[in-house]
Specification:
This protein has about 325 residues and is mainly alpha-helical. Helices cover about 55% and strands about 5% of the residues. The protein folds into 2 domains: about 5-105, Orthogonal Bundle (DNA polymerase, domain 1); about 120-300, hpI Integrase, Chain A (Orthogonal Bundle), CATH 1.10.443.10. It has helices at about 5-20, 25-45, 50-60, 70-85, 95-105, 120-125, 135-145, 150-155, 200-210, 235-250, 260-275, 280-285, 290-300; strands spanning about 165, 170-175, 185-190, 220, 230. The strands form 2 sheets. Strands 1-2-3 form a 3-stranded antiparallel beta sheet, with no helix packed on it. A two-stranded antiparallel ribbon has the order 4-5. A hairpin with a 5-residue loop joins β4 (about 220) and β5. α3 runs parallel beside α5 (about 95-105) and α7 packs antiparallel against α9 (about 200-210). The longest helix has 21 residues, at about 25-45. The N and C termini lie far apart (about 65 Å).
């Protein structure tokens, strides 16, 4: 480990790098690192700096508990903590990489993607909401999440100051998100819908008016008695979706999972099916990689674009 002025500068650089992470990623890494540190302490080995064989053994201990993404995130968290505190880290260490490949080859079940919710399913969710204050909040939550292609962390981070209403619709400013590591922010437009019952802008206006929200968090928790409380959490969005999906009797394929991300995935899927261009989808969904965007397009059009359509069957 480097010491003196150079070591201090390396540690400071690592702290700056840590601040570039999205808040959710930082929290997830902290929890993952705490688990690794506790595992090392129980085994009487050092967590920092960790020997490659120790990291490999830790991954092996989780082989039957975590899927592909979970294992990779644990490894990323360990690497991040080493770099943050100025310890060298070999991203391609042969012992760690060989162990991870072996685990994924034997135990790594493919991750279940979020089921892309269609506009028909979103309308079924709306029908299950009702017209009370809680229902108005949930309607606005689903419609803005769908029409804005928002991640749930972006949904709960919306403040009244981020909204600008016009005759054509609404401009939403997103201060920062998962792929916006430099926190430049982005603005997207959400037009008024043709149907007043499923118009995202009208739903937002009605929720704000009835809840008397003029500043601060837009989506807030409600007490059992209907009192408006603080900002809604990421997990709260998931609970709301699960409850409304049960009421609407929405089910998803067993190879997929019900998740708030399905609102975002559903928007991108339907946009492609209705002829949207890559650049339009990338801008609206704030995607940095064309490969990610085209992955959604392939899944959306997997049957329509199949060469099997050319067969005389």
């Amino acid at each position: 480990m480097l010491t003196g002025p150079v070591g201090e500068a390396v540690a400071e650089a690592a702290r700056y790098a840590g601040r570039a992470l999205a808040d959710n990623t930082r929290r997830a890494y902290a929890a993952d690192w705490a688990d690794f540190a506790a595992w090392c302490a129980a085994g009487g080995v050092a967590a920092l700096p960790a020997q490659p064989v120790v990291v490999a053994a830790y991954l092996a201990s989780l082989a039957r508990k975590l899927g592909r993404s979970g294992l990779r995130r644990r490894l990323a968290a360990i690497a991040h903590e080493h770099r943050r505190l100025g310890h060298p880290w070999q991203s391609r260490d042969p012992v760690i990489n060989a162990t991870l490949r072996g685990i994924l080859g034997q135990h790594g079940a493919p991750a279940r993607p979020a089921a892309a919710l269609t506009s028909t399913e979103v309308k079924a969710l709306l029908a299950a909401c009702g017209s009370d204050l809680r229902g108005l909040r949930d309607r606005a939550l689903f419609l803005i999440g769908f029409a804005g292609a928002l991640r749930r962390s972006e949904l709960v981070a919306i403040d009244h100051e981020h909204l600008r209403f016009t005759t054509e619709g609404m401009v939403l400013f997103i201060p920062h998100s998962k792929r916006d590591q430099e926190r430049e922010g982005a603005s997207i437009g959400i037009p008024r819908g043709q149907n007043v019952l499923s118009c995202p802008v009208r739903a937002m206006e009605e929720w704000l008016r009835r809840a008397r929200i003029a500043y601060g968090p837009v989506f807030r928790r409600l007490s059992a008695g209907g009192q408006i409380e603080g900002r809604l959490t990421d997990h709260g969005v998931w609970r709301i979706l699960r409850r409304r999906a049960e009421l609407a009797r929405i089910t998803v394929d067993t190879a997929e999972r019900l998740s708030p991300h399905g609102l975002r995935a559903g928007f991108i899927t339907e946009a492609y099916l209705k002829g949207a261009l890559d650049e339009q989808v990338m801008h609206h969904a704030r995607q940095k990689s064309i490969a990610t965007t085209q992955g959604y397009r392939r899944r959306a059009r997997i049957t329509r674009d199949s060469p099997a359509r050319l067969l005389d069957l």
